[in-house]
Amino acid sequence: MLQLRPGCECCDKELPPDSTEARICTFECTFCADCATNKLRGICPNCGGELVARPRRPAAKLATSPASTERVLKPAGCGAA
């Protein structure tokens, strides 16, 4: 099950579970659409994988399968991939 992490690893922008702005790689590294497109050019800086739109979990399922509260943040931000 996807963790649905709460924020962008680069800029710490809030990315709630229903966000259409969240992008992830196959390891669930999580970035906002702006950082994924403009800073990272669609490539995860951690693994080199493709960044794609994160699926949204139906609200009814969040009660039994909540999103993660774990934040992952790169203190220096993300440079270009």
List keywords for this structure.
single chain, 81 residues, Herpes Virus-1, three-stranded antiparallel sheet, 2 helices, 3 strands, 10% strand, globular, DUF1272, DUF1272 domain-containing protein
Describe, in plain words, how this protein is organized in 3D:
With 81 residues, the protein is mostly loops. It has a single domain (1-58), classed as Herpes Virus-1 (2-Layer Sandwich), CATH 3.30.40. 14% of the residues lie in helices and 10% in strands. It contains 2 helices and 3 strands; from the N terminus they run E-E-H-E-H. It has helices at 33-39, 59-62, and strands at 22-24, 30-32, 52-53. Strands 2-1-3 form a 3-stranded antiparallel sheet. Strand 1 and strand 2 form a beta hairpin. The radius of gyration is 12 Å and the shape is globular. The termini are far apart. The model has no long low-confidence stretch (mean pLDDT 93).
Task: Write a concise synopsis of the structure shown.
The chain contains two helices and three strands; from the N terminus they run ββαβα. It has 81 residues and is mostly loops. It has a single domain, classed as 2-Layer Sandwich (Herpes Virus-1), CATH 3.30.40.
State the domain count.
Answer: 1
Summarize model confidence as the mean pLDDT.
93
The top level CATH class name: Alpha Beta
* Percent of residues in helices: 10-25%
The coarse silhouette is: globular
Strand segment tally? 3
Provide the spatial order of strands within the biggest beta sheet. 2-1-3
Strand residue content: 5-15%
User: Which architecture name does CATH use?
Assistant: 2-Layer Sandwich
The number of helices is 2
> What is the helix/strand order?
EEHEH
Largest sheet properties: 3 strands, antiparallel
Low-confidence region ranges? none
Instruction: Provide the structure class.
Output: little secondary structure
End-to-end distance: 27 Å
Indicate the radius of gyration in whole angstroms.
12 Å
